[in-house]
């Protein structure tokens, strides 16, 4: 878990950057198939998706997911196992981000009009969840937590070295 703003920014950048890239590639490929313009469509959709995802992560979904996790889900046993806290928050984050980003995706594609908007949203939500949840738990989450752990270890080592020099 990030312990300060710098760690939160790095962690969010890695998490959102990887998740948005893969999910953009997935959704664009689902929508248009393997066409000549696929790579360009993925790259052109990525920046706006990343910006929206970072804003949602930091200002909306993240605080709600963490608040719900610590208030209703995480118990004393789970507090002793930080991996359980991380998994719990990750699952809640995926549910929140899929909910918001699916809406964003159909809005960007102009699919928010017509009589089938709820069916379109439900289909998009399910198809995004079945990819985003395992992607987060198996690939992206461990990568982001690994980088964060190395960053925290380097900070701790630098702090220990500074204390040793003072002695």
TrEMBL record:
InterPro entries: DUF2798. The keyword Membrane applies. It holds the Pfam family DUF2798. The chain crosses the membrane at residues 9-26, 38-61, 82-105, 125-144. Keywords: Membrane, Transmembrane, Transmembrane helix. This is Integral membrane protein.
